[in-house]
Amino acid sequence: MQNRVAGILLAILICIPFFTYGQKSINSPLARYNLGLIEPAGSFRSLGMAGTGLAARDNLNVFYLNPASYSAIDTNSFVFDFGIDYGINLVSDGTNKDLSEDLNFDHFMIAFPIKKNWGMAMGLIPFSNGYYNISEQVSAEDTDPLIGEYTAYHNGSGGFTNFFLGTGVNIAKNLSAGANMSFIFGSINRYNEFDFADYYYTFQTNMTDKFQITGIGFDAGLQYFRDLKKDYFLNLGTSFSSGRNCKSRLESTTFRYNIYSTTDTRFSSIDDSTRTYLPWSFRAGIAFGKKNKFTTSLDYAYTNWAAAKFPGSSGNLASTHTVSLGADWIPDRLSNYNFIKRIEYRAGVHAGNNYLLLNGYKVNEYGASIGAGIPMRRRYKTAADFYSKINFYFDYTSRSMTGAPFVHNENYFTFGLSLNMYDNWFFKRKYD
Q1: For residue 221, what is the domain's CATH number?
Q2: Domains in the chain, number
Q3: Contact yes or no for 344/373 (Cβ under 8 A)
Q4: Could you point out which of 72, 92, 211, 388 has its C-alpha 20 to 30 Å from the C-alpha of 381?
Q5: Mean pLDDT of 327-343
Q6: Over the stretch 33-80, which tens digit does the pLDDT of each residue have?
Q7: pTM for the full predicted model
Q8: Any idea what DSSP says for residue 75?
């Protein structure tokens, strides 16, 4: 066990710098606005089932979207989960295409018991990604003749991360409750340059923005769980995330100059410390299945993004509705001789809309996912061998704006791989 502990602590120390300095570099024009692209939420086990998990509870995974699930961590368990993902985004406007890709650290989470039917969890998870790289050549025929031809460059980098710490406890025989405190932090840098072909009569213009956020929020969750006959079970779950007023700062700088004149150089800056408001969310889900055999899950999530407020932004926000349906199946969890039968197979579909509203048009999102939980050992020797897994998932999500005259489509492919390690801790030894 000492080797496992050392490995887990080393992994945590390695993971933290990745979150502090490493952000995704997958090009999406939608990341240009507000908080950038919101990252999908959930462990890789959940994402293999289209992000479902509000009613899920076991002592092997961290279902942080519903902190009531932490009460399922048993008294001798320690769960550690960290993962990386590889993303590919194909952007097309019908004429032009662009493909970008990136491999990046995704998350780390741990869960452990306080006492029987009372557990805790904590972790670092991605919240949004603000990377984009866009250029556009505008001819003289498409603009004001006095301005003439120019090239526009738009670049963004950075993103936001969430740290959460929560606890869950059984408050009745078949009922648990839990709460998370979450801390969001990070920044997005944006750069815009307008390079005019006519250097003599026009000003070249460069603009930079730096948008920073720090803030604390709270989540509360409930789960009702009931064992049925012949090892079947039924779980119901719901969670609520409060709105939060975050400390934020927008630093904007505009530099205009003419290369033939030093006296006409113009410089302006704005420092806006208006607080950012992130909206409340409501989620509900149901899970039905048979222990050690299969699970089916249905989740619904609503976030009141229309009420959000950001410095330097006016509108362009739509409240989101998302429906997800997922399932997993394992042929024979208890088999010690057939490795293939111990693999968990997962699949799901999801549909909803993005939080961006562009010129009155919503961004629709549809997708499907598959996944697998692969045991780390071919044979069981200890409980850690029985429960520890490599979780893999693949998700395809399509983003489009139906009917918009300026429409572009995005086809986003994500491959995720995580180590979900389980160990027996907190034993009271009778013999040394």
Answers
A1: 2.40.160.60
A2: 1
A3: yes
A4: 72
A5: 86
A6: 889 999 998 899 999 999 999 999 988 889 999 999 999 998 878 888
A7: 0.87
A8: T
